[in-house]
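Entry: DNA methylase domain protein
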Amino acid sequence: MGSGTTGISCIKTERRFIGIEKDKGYFDLAKSRISKAKKENVETLFSDLTLSS
């Protein structure tokens, strides 16, 4: 899983992924980066919508 770059790319392109990492340091780094990307993706997911009544 390394630093999570593939997981982040999958989130941005709305793909699913499975990450496997044996080194705890890289796992923690990837987990943090992927969590941040998920939050950012939710914020931009609907940015092009226009609300009207």
